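Entry 12.
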Amino acid sequence: IVEIDNQKLWLLNKAVLTHYDYVADKLIKQYDLSKWEPHQVIIDGGKIWLISAKDGQLYGLNLN
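Predicted 3D structure (tokens):
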């Protein structure tokens, strides 16, 4: 689990980041991050910040 609030959940499973509404029991969106081989992921508003296990670099990706 990357982030959770009282309605929605961000979950990282291998290289797939999933945004899920567990109150409505529905998938919002999935993001394939395999290109970056994420080691650590942080959700910050409209951005995904991740550290790549491939090259150790920090990447900021827009969610839109």
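Annotation: The two ends are 21 Å apart (CA to CA). The beta strands are 3-4, 8-13, 16-21, 26-32, 38-44, 47-52, 58-62.
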